[in-house]
Amino acid sequence: MDNLILDLPFDEADGSLVAYDYSPSGVHADVINGRFLKGREGNCVIFPAAGYVEILTPIIDFDSTYTVFFWITATPTIYGPTNTWILVNFPGFPEFRIDLHTKADTWTMIALAHKEGTYAAYVDARPVEVKSRPVEWGTPTGFSVENDNGYNEPGWCSIDLFRVVEGKALTTNDLIPVVSTFANQVRFSINGMDFKALGITVSSEKGLTDGLEQKESSDHDWLDEHGSFEDLDDIRYMPREIELGCWFSAIGKDAMLNTQTAIKDQFKRNGTQRLMVDIGTKPLVFEVHHKGKIEFDKKWREGKAFCTFTLNLKEKQPVKRVLRYIKVDDSTPDLEITLTSYKMLDIYWGDGTNSRDVYGTNLLITRKYTSPGTYYIIIAGVIEKIEAFTTNAVIVWNKLL
Fold this sequence. Notes:
Blueprint: E1 4-8, E2 18-19, E3 29-32, E4 35-38, E5 43-48, E6 52-54, E7 66-74, E8 84-89, E9 96-99, E10 108-115, E11 118-123, E12 126-132, E13 142-147, E14 156-166, H1 172-181, E15 187-190, E16 193-194, E17 201-206, E18 219-220, E19 229-230, E20 240-251, H2 253-266, E21 273-278, E22 284-290, E23 296-301, E24 304-315, E25 320-327, E26 335-348, E27 354-367, E28 373-380, E29 388-391, E30 394-400
Antiparallel strand pairs: 1-14, 2-3, 3-6, 4-5, 5-14, 7-10, 7-14, 8-9, 8-13, 10-11, 11-12, 15-16, 15-21, 17-20, 18-19, 20-24, 21-22, 22-24, 23-24, 25-28, 25-30, 26-27, 26-28, 26-29
């Protein structure tokens, strides 16, 4: 989505004290007395009768045009909740209340759009109330979402995917795709080329999220002991094998050949290729190469070709840490990683280049990207043996295997 100035998916592991901002702003939030547990998609942040997420850097100009939207659920009690409101705060003036007409006791998407003093509230993309503030009240200092839990004490609530869009008051048409695709959108790409852009559909897959096969470990069989003894202290894994069953249709021979050539060209390049499976906020990323040739099974009907093919991919280094870095312009600070590891690591920078055999003590690694964009960095190897690690990038997956 364009013009995001805050994007908090709350997908961190439980125990994290930071909620990463996935927007170009990079204003990561501190989490106080909150926990990360299973949410609507991935994890969410839950506040058990206390706690908050804090960003000290000002994000929203409350006089500007903007939209805030997020998923929320209040833990129900035998007494409630019965309703939910947005309260916009104008110091020194009466309460400015917007009725959302929802209990929010299951996962509910709430959006608040502001433009020129008028607020439009939405629940699951459905407009529920439009209200204008008195001009003489001036600029608000913030807003809150409240509901009645039936007790005279704080309740429990969970929040997922909190976003702020600058410069646009979103409408129902803008919000419907957010609701409908929140947990259902899956996109495949190779080296940044979207399969759908070529009309290619992935109809089946094997190996993307399956468990990895363990390497054989030392097994000792002593004649004077019962059973046998196996070293399971340092488990290592075999490469990942991925199989993608794909198909596409094309009108005419030229169109069919163009699509075949486009997919084959991606695997003619030297080195590994970047496979990305976008399943939400945290994509799955792999550095792979194709085994053997790609064979297309073609059928024709009235001038239209139907082609099926299988991509057999291997990821040599399947255990990795994944980072996310956004370069907005030349003023964006360079990517920095400081690590301590006596095991050699390989770093794939997400722009087609890599650094091999990286190791050392308090080793500072910087990376200057030439073009604006979002980059996913893979650090592959025995990452369990990394003794210290800091970065100014977002840690998407601390350990992905």
